[in-house]
Amino acid sequence: MEREAPQWLEVGEGAQMRRLAVLSRPGDGVPVVWLGGFRSDMRATKAEALNDWARRAGRPFLRFDYAGHGESDGDFARWTLSHWLEDALAVIAARCGAPPILVGSSMGGWIALLAARRLLGTALAPAGLVLIAPAVDFSEDLMWAQMPEPIRQTILRDGVWMRPSEYSPEPTPITRALIEDGRRHLMFGSEIRTGCPVHILQGMQDPDVPWRQALKLVEHLSGDAVILTLVKDGDHRLSTAQDIQRLQAAVAGMATAP
């Protein structure tokens, strides 16, 4: 099958301007927006599986690559969570004609919650959130707090540490800017309000986002209707055939809810 060419959306101004690669499937009903993970891309397994579901169901589906990710412009190490949140909000504003369902994977779960907070009370306030191993506050809780002191000192001194990756042969640059910017967006410690239903899918064998983080998130979503699905043998990716079926069912259920 021929690879679909992306459309392009310019975001930011001056030295911060970047072009984002966007794939958009037309359809009827609530638009579904995919928000990928840290260093992932819009053609990854779960995004493709949701695109297949959208094609079969005739639903609109929107996905894109953040700055420095996938096919979008920019060096990965240059950008931070603030930029990636801005990317998500820009794509939603430009391409969603109705309140969307935001589907966030890992870092994308944090971005989905931040986007929902920004959009609350607007015409594009989300109709629902589906969060897969949501890595809320990951730069602080799951990175900085877990780092040995020598690695912290490397980041503070050099501005970057090259972290070996289990998902890529290339190491991942963890920058001082990423850590410091993440602190501007921390959500735990006060109530998180989305104004919409939330369904969380979390593997209990996840080495990157411990399943108790999902319980912590549920506790913070005290004013929202929340479903938490714990997958006993699930890892971080949740990309087995059964995991994909759970994801598609969760999105379909939210998309068809009255």
Summarize the structure.
This protein is 34% helix and 20% strand. The chain is built from eight helices and ten strands. With 258 residues, it is α/β, with parallel strands linked by helices.
* The CATH class: Alpha Beta
Q: Strand tally, please?
A: 10
What's the CATH architecture name? 3-Layer(aba) Sandwich
Name given to the CATH homologous superfamily: Alpha/Beta hydrolase fold, catalytic domain
Low-confidence parts: none
Helix content: 25-40%
Mean pLDDT: 96
User: Any idea of the CATH topology?
Assistant: Rossmann fold
**Count of helix runs:** 8
CA radius of gyration: 17 Å
Largest sheet: 8 strands, mixed
* Strand order, largest beta sheet: 1-2-4-3-5-6-9-10
- How many independent structural domains? 1
**Separation, N- and C-terminal Cα atoms:** 35 Å
Beta-strand share of residues: 15-25%
What is the approximate shape? globular
> Structural class, judged by helices and strands?
alpha/beta
Q: SSE string, helix = H, strand = E? A: EEEHEHEHEHHEEHEHEH
What report would you give on this structure?
The chain is an alpha/beta fold. It has one domain (7-136, 191-255): Alpha/Beta hydrolase fold, catalytic domain (Rossmann fold, 3-Layer(aba) Sandwich), CATH 3.40.50.1820. It is 34% helix and 20% strand. It is built from eight helices and ten strands. Helix 1 crosses helix 8 (241-255) and helix 2 crosses helix 3 (107-119). The longest helix is centred in the middle third of the chain and has 15 residues, at 81-95. The protein is globular, with a radius of gyration of 17 Å. The termini are far apart. The relative contact order is 0.14.
